[in-house]
Amino acid sequence: MHLRVLIHRLRAGGAIAIAMASLACASDAGGPDRSQGFSSLVALSAARLDLSRQVALTKWDTHQPVADPPGDPREQEVIAAASREASGRGLPEELATAFFADQIEASKLVQFALMAHWRREGQAPIEPRADLRSELRPALDRLRTQFIDQLIAIRPRRERADCRERLADATARHADAHGLSPLFAIALDRGLARVCAEGPDPLR
Questions:
Q1: CA 13/CA 36 separation, integer angstroms
Q2: Which helix (H) or strand (E) element contains residue 111?
Q3: Is the pTM value of this prediction over 0.90?
């Protein structure tokens, strides 16, 4: 599905429109292009982090913790649903499980850091909020199929010896092009940590 269609679907509420900035420009910045094939996946991950910021705002307002309370199956349900869909489309369940677990951990990283910053400041930003259950979670769920589309598209690149180098270049280009803060740049790396196939890192 074209990214502009995804932008339209993500617009579940006014506040969710912030995800448009990350998705509207999936092309890489100028210069030697070693990131070809990864830019759309990176843009989707950045869009998910934008939504994570909105999740942090709603949790701040309602005094909810970042991590799900004990016994809450939400996180495992998200990962299991992604694994089932990925498996049905020919992707290894192990890849989907690792990838979506990493995306969730990246989201938590952003939420923990932002809420700690807001506590130090004594307040969160004053801006429109989106409802967690009716807007943000459905928007996050809709990203799942788009992520699987991209994981299928990059399958040959995952096996390349220079996969990590190309993916790192793609994330750096996106961070530079969109002026991401260090927090969001680190979270972007965290969410994409296991995209490349397992094997020795040629740069280590």
A1: 32
A2: helix 93-121
A3: no
